[in-house]
Amino acid sequence: MTPNEAKGTIIQSELDHNRELMTKVDNEFEVGQTVVYRLKQKQKQSGKESAKWGTLVYEVVGIDGYRIQIRSKNGHTLYKSPNDLKFVKLGITNAGEDGIFEAEAILKHKKIPNGKYQYLVKWRGYDKPSWEPQANLR
């Protein structure tokens, strides 16, 4: 095999690999699935370099080659790479019609590593108390 033939085989194998990646998008995501996307990292971020994921849940509404079209409940549409998306399962909540629980008592509190507090709350109508962040108690 000549050097040019070897280069040709390498190029052909790379093209085949890229074609497989294009079809891989269709196999991983389906229209109607719920996902969150990876947030951009700041340039001079110190500490842990793990991925930070958004908190808004989006629904896959279209698949276009290497990009996936996602839309939030308020109609905001984005195009993201499949590598920047992660599946999420939506949980069913037992919240009332207005989505608000009534606290009967705050039993304890604790400081968590990020400097914020969590509270052990006894909910009216429920037997088991739960630890809640301060944001849930407003």
UniProtKB/TrEMBL annotation:
Gene3D superfamilies: 2.40.50.40. It comes from the Eukaryota. Residues 101-138 form the Chromo domain. CDD domains: CD_CSD. This is Unnamed protein product. It comes from Phytophthora lilii.
